[in-house]
Amino acid sequence: MLPFTSIGEAEAALGRNLTAVEAVWFQYSSGMHDFCLYAHNIVFLLLVYSVAPLPVALAELKRPKAIHKYKLQPKVHVPVADVLKCYKNVVKTFLFAVGPLQLVSFPTIKWVGIRTGLPLPSVWEAAAQLAVYFVVEDYFNYWLHRALHSRWGYDHIHRVHHEFSAPVGFAAPYAHWAEVLILGFPAFLGPAIAPCHILVFWLWFVLRHVEAIETHCGYDFPQTPTKYIPFYGGAEYHDYHHYVGGRSHSNFASVFTYCDYIYGTDKGYRYQKGQLAKQLTEQEKAKNQNGETNGMWEKYD
């Protein structure tokens, strides 16, 4: 809760005028308890999960020929009924597992130093914090994800996520409730190491959620902005992990590719890519352009 009763009082305490964004934040958060602000996070997660996968999902329904050549596993079609079932299961997990955990963790968030007051962070400060969060989350997620591919971890927990051998955006957070909590830990670790403002905290979880949806969308669109991010994995990279399924010991990374490269867990992926490049003839390329494709991985069954 802001310790100021008016904008004038806030400006006097800061020794300057509030920026336009700070004024909006004051109007919105003044008098609101920090617990209520923190609880916004679950609302944002539900909203992003409901909206972000829609463009690709609707495009797949309405314009299959226009985007078919970009589909990574074109022989697999996930029925709408399965997508709706997936959506309901994920919402239940958010409401009955993620939501309560986030609310119970409020004292920890306050303890590590997540703040809600003024001044707001600069754009560069927020960008630096987000960069730290992505790197920290990616590294620890790699090892936890790899552990979930052990025999016990896969059979008892992680197999649920791999029910979608050809992932779709709505299946990004589809998993056993225990996996959602386990892989949620690295997401909180970054803000614990480098505490931020609650606005950056919200933005971090929104961006990470959008990234996961993009990675699971099942399409490799050539103009995706994330292709310009160094060491970024993307949809094709993670799609291979799902295609191989329970046998997969490759492409464990959640965002970047450096851990897989350093620890040698991308060898299968790189080998298959190399083989594909050798076997792809000019005739096959022409078929791909016309939407008649076998996909990235089918020929290796």
UniProtKB/TrEMBL annotation:
It is an enzyme of class 4 (lyase). GO terms for cellular component: endoplasmic reticulum membrane. The chain crosses the membrane at residues 38-61, 180-205. The keyword Transmembrane helix applies. Its EC number is 4.1.99.5. It catalyses: a long-chain fatty aldehyde + 2 NADPH + O2 + H(+) = a long-chain alkane + formate + 2 NADP(+) + H2O. It is found in: Endoplasmic reticulum membrane. Residues 131-265 form the Fatty acid hydroxylase domain. Residues 282-301 are annotated as: Disordered. It holds the Pfam family FA_hydroxylase. Keywords: Endoplasmic reticulum, Lyase, Membrane, Transmembrane, Transmembrane helix. GO terms for biological process: lipid biosynthetic process. It is a multi-pass membrane protein. GO terms for molecular function: aldehyde oxygenase (deformylating) activity; iron ion binding; oxidoreductase activity. Belongs to the sterol desaturase family. This is aldehyde oxygenase (deformylating). It comes from Musa balbisiana (Banana).
